[in-house]
Amino acid sequence: MSGESLVGRTALEHLDALAKGELSARELVQAYLERIERFDGHVQAFLLVDADGAVKKAAEVDERRARGEPLGPLAGVPVAVKDVLCTEGQRTTCASRILENFIPPYDATVVRKLKEADAVLIGKTNMDEFAMGSSTENSAFQVTRNPWDLTRAPGGSSGGSAAAVAACFAPLAIGSDTGGSIRQPAALCGVVGLKPTYGRVSRYGLVAFASSLDQIGPFAFDVRDTALLLKVIAGHDPLDSTSVARSVPDYLACVEEPLEGLKVGVVREWLSEGVDPEVATAVRDAVAVYEKLGADVCDISLPHSKYGIPAYYIVAPAEASSNLARYDGVHYGYRAARYEDMIDMYCRTRAEGFGAEVKRRIMLGTYALSAGYYDAYYLKALKVRRVIREDFDRAFEQVDVIIGPTSPTPAFRLGERLADPLSMYLSDIYTVTANLAGIAGISLPCGFTQDGLPIGLQILAPPFEEERLLRAARMYERETEWHRRRADLQQAVAAVSKAG
To answer: What DSSP line would sit under 296-339, residue for residue?
Structure first.
């Protein structure tokens, strides 16, 4: 079996072939490493590729399989990890100069669980610095490109993880989602991305951006693989005080069971002003699929969703201002080479170590928390957050799931929105409310534009109803073929060469 025929298959297909002895874990990992070597210079999805570690782990899995020893549920499958998760003995930079040489002494809980599942951790993926951005252009080290069109953004902040799956560099990847940072890049890259309920997956070892919003989740080609990976990483963790002690269903075992009498709510505010016509058409076509399957579809309103962006850009920067205060040049990370005194060292270190977007959000957050403005901004944003959650609570009394577009547009051109932060922030207009409310959400492919760019369908479910979310998503996925499409990187590279 050739390397090119292996990459692009789902994790479950790989696991089946490995179990049957049709290929070895080492052959599988080598095929992905060769693909990365060939094309990642164009995509730039990875900040670090651990080729030696991946081959060593694959060989260990093969040896244990040959001896008949029990193996984990991801044995031999390559997984890419966003560089916001601590990995013991391996650089974790958050795509920031201030952590350029930081090597954690421990693994994040999600990383530990992946290792215990015998996954092969193939590398750390690029991201917007400290997860602040919607295009992966804010990385201090490189710009990640969309595998479907190398002149366009993959979304963000988990653009490296989404691009790694879309480019067939790994069948599975891990990202984090603070305001849409898994779902939006999944939509723009034509893959599946799931944001679990806040508290479902441990945040221990996740470098914090906004602690009350951050959540870790999976990327995959399809819903079944997403269910497999979520089962591995979910669960209570005593090391994370926000982790919830609830049992984790076997998501994969039930994902094929259709939901009888499914009630679907379509958000009327999300299919009106500001949405790209091709995106709106694809989402309406997806609604028609649910109607064909017998679902009861109705319009619903989330009247306070229009306040999601302003509320988010008070709450998230306020928490970032606090969380990022620790990067002072004293304890760890970057320190300015020249300074006059301690205060000057703090100022120069942070000025040199942080990028423009991170500085912008720290200043926004610090201002919102400052004396005289706390009540006017931060406290008011928390009240808006509460009414946004109440909108969802009322909606879920009427319907089982809520659907709409993931992103108002398909992938935009690199550089197109960098000079206009508000335009960039509006990329997440349909995703931030799920984080503010703490509910579960998924994005899956639902079509392509005339230019061949992916379109994402967002489905939302009540807290801790990931099982319902996955089953509803799989109902649609079974009826369509969008998730089977793969980006043609050879063609994408040729197109850029021809244009340039």
So the answer is: EEEEE--TTGGGHHHHHHHHHHHHHHHHGGG-SSSSSS---S--
